[in-house]
Amino acid sequence: MTSFAELQQSLDDYSRYDISDTVRDDDRTMAAARVAVQVLALLQGASAADIDVEDALLNEVGADSHEEWFVGHPQLDAPMVCELTEPGMPYAATFMALRGSAVKTRISACVSMRDHWEDGLSLPSNLYDIFPVGIHFFAPANTQSIIIAVSKSGNLRTMELRGTLSNTQKRILERLSGLLAADGLTDDDKPRIHAELWDALNVTEVNRSFYQGIAVRFNELVQSIVASGHDADEAKLFASRLIGRILFAWFLDRKGFLNPEERYLETDGLDAAGYYERKLKRLFFATLNTARQDRDEDGDFVTPFLNGGLFEEQTTDFPNETIAFPDDFFTSLYAHFRQYDFTTDESTPDYEQVAIDPEMLGRIFESLLAEQMDDTGKTARNAKGAFYTPRQIVSYMCRESLRQYLYNVLGDGKGVHVGVDRLLDTTDGEWERNGDARRTLWGSNTATVLPLAIQALDGVRVLDPAVGSGAFPMGMLQLLMRCHARLQGRKAVADAYERKMRILQRNIFGVDIEPMAVEVARLRVWLSMIVERGSIDDVEPLPNLDFKFVCADSVVPLAVGEDATDVLPANGAAYDQVLLALNGDDAALMDELGEIRSQYFHVTGAENKSRLMQRFEDIIRQLGHGDMASERSRQLSAFHPHASVSSEAGHAPFFDPDFMFGVNRFDVVIGNPPYVQLQKMADKHKYASLAYKSYNQTGDLYELFYERGLMMLSDRGVLDFITSNKWMRNKYGVELRSYLAANAEVITLIDLGAGRFSSATVDTNIMLLRKGRADGVLQAVRYTGDSLDDIGSYVGEHATVIPFDTEGYDRNTAAAVRGSSPWVILSDVERSIKHRMDEAGTLLKDLDVRINYGVKTGLNDAFIISKEKRDELIAADPKSAEIIRPVLRGRDVKRYRYEFADLYTITLFPSLEYDIDRYPAVKDWLINGDWVLSGRTSSPIGTGRLRLEQTGAEHKCEGVRFKSRKKTGNKWFETQDAISYSDDFSQPKIVWGEISDRAKFAFDGGGDYVPEATTFLMVGSDLLPILGFLNSRLAEYYFSTLGTTTGMGTVRWKKYTIEQLPIALFDGAERETFLQLIRQRLDDGRSEAELQELDHAIDECIASRIGLTRPEMDFIERFSQ
Questions:
Q1: How far apart are CA 723 and CA 908, in angstroms?
Q2: Fewer CB in a 10 Å sphere around the end CB: N or C, the chain?
Q3: The pTM is what?
Q4: Residue range 954-972: average pLDDT?
């Protein structure tokens, strides 16, 4: 069996051939083929000695009319496209020696030249079942590497073998060793063979393990720097920037852009501090940040000058200080890096390489910063609501937003939209194989439309207002580059670097409130520029991105005058009027700002940058007219573009695209705004004062992003966000739903559900919209697919509409508001069911019932006690029995019944105005009880009163810090809420838990129990028929369309949404029959089979009452299962 040593030797032999030596092309091709054959032997479990490479290459299979793509065969008069396996096998391995470079489009095209089993996996039935599974080996002419590729429905996964095999590559090959062993293989093995190949080349696990190693070392470095006396935020910023710079240098070294004689990435026995001082500082500051002509005499004159700002020394780099690095920090970090292969070419959803690519930088730093904990134990992710968007979703959103923009700009003339769709949707392989694709995009109108399309792409303005680590700007950059390459052919490919430069300067803009996010976004852009340079001699100074990605608060507009609430109007025309109202001097200054921004993009040298930036800030102050009493002037004076990503400057407290970018309208606003509740933000009052129509004090920050984004759109622009979907159905989403219905045309709304982010269980939606007004959502779909690879096709096949109605009401005026009721996505059969329920039923909120929360004590450890503790307190003071009652928690509630857990609650409700001194045993328990040792927070015995105070104060006792309950007007011994409805606890009632996977409503007919905070209770008339309806499968289904989920398979059965259920009650004999079924169901003495029979009978009664058809009943049955 081939060993890794033999495979490595073959790779070494292959690497010795000079790619510029065309005389020995045949020898080089044979050496490459030997590597491919040995990999195949490893998969087959065969010995390399048993394989004759020359014989293996004799099965030439043709180039499908693309002979010019391949080098000539050393032995045959044919292109080097050979099948390495015998016919009739369930797999086919092909070796191809490329004439040019291994660009993604060419690899994709070559893979698709022949049919394979996996090409049919996306079809309802696999029409390609007769073909073998494909394994492809490529030898590019311009690199000493072998690329292994497997495909799935047009998508590719690849692994590049080059130089020394990485440990990751060895693990993958070891996993696949023997997969293709010939003994007993049949066509039935095709699914298994393909699944093993496809899963083995999944980059997700590689990325995960790489990140985990980075995270460990990041945390060690932060802790070490903090221990040396530095602030934690400064330490995180230093650690993030250092690791980012090192990774950037690692990528540069992968491209061959670092002087090998300097051995920058070798520690050479130096301790960590010495290595940083002698090698990394020399690389970062004296070399990459210094033009060659300005370097010291003993400087490195080989490694290129990069510019851009990434390697500028900042105060947060702790200059003139010896950094307290952990022992062997760099040795350990580099050992971790060497476990993996690196590539400067970013993967896309349809082409993934098993290697660490620049996109991984974004994931690393977004995750590192998000997982850092504060003193309360909360992570930054919890506080800031930041989640990394999967690349498939980024790709889909970029493509759909650009599609709508091109539709709008190019119009709807004959075949225009069809041509745009071909431009955006044709796979790389199809495009590459179709030499006439560009000339036939718009049929006979191509000559007219094509230059207009190029002009439209040149003019598009794209903004990500929550840029994170740059996923969406990079996604849009890749898409624009792809479109230009398709529309302009070889010219665009030849000018790739300049094209990227123009796109960055003119088309793409980003904002984020987090300084480190802005730094990482810039870093990713710079890496994307480097990848376009083929040799060290081609590397040019990188652009400065200070006016491309800014650190600012996207939701806060620039004030017009004195007050922070005096902001620029939301209406586009009014906004433009404000700009037109600038006096002549101000207009001239604005023009000068534009010239400074343009010059600054390309300028090099610290003095030149400083001069331009100083002039920029001088002009900003002039435009504020020096009146520091005005909010506008205060905002402008706080904007320092060059310093805004350093910890001492922070973010600008506003965002104004005209001042910061020289752009006042965008054609595409796209991104993933933060998912954070406004009421949990320290500066929530700032947003309350800005007069957003979508604002709700219990809502989420992303709702304001929708409104601000819509304000900034051009007349033909589109907005595309992925956010939490809670606004669609929750009460706090009324304002946003109303605003969108009145001001936007929602083109597509996709409810993705939960689990789409690896780092979060949040339920999400994608919404694409433009300015305007429509009668409803044009395309809406609940996405239930397992994979995110083909969202577009799923939408096309399953989309429905959401008509806007006026069932919702303005909470201030009680007037009906169009589109304010929950936005529910329903299929035709679901819409029919809903219509029948609405017609037959009455909303629960309109029945004679009353719903309230259970008891919120604010500290359950003190107020909820065991039976033993209850008995002890009553024995010590019999009066204690007056204020201790059995309690039901959400977890205790089942369908129709409950399981009492022998727990009790102390009912010291503020509304009842108890005197605690009448209950000395309870008072002593609250003050001196050992409950203070329980729960997530503990404190010394005797601190009960301090813990129970309702002041929100912080305390310290015996070295232990703890907080009292949140501030209210209640007494220290009382529950957190007043509980003015405490009499309801003694009445017959329906009880249910707020969070549950199924409908679980219990009946407390004797009024014996007090529900706690995780439950709700309902009192009133007709409780038994309501109980039966709520526990039915129909109600369970209907509520699933109204309620919000937790993201973990459970639904929130909250008061607001449950009140929207239409309840169909019975009359006469039907009522008595139904009540009899409910009473029987409440009988605990029945068997499980009897209970199921009763449930079925109840469901049938309800279905008959509202007139469900058999197909509709079958749908409910399938849903329940």
A1: 41
A2: C
A3: 0.84
A4: 91
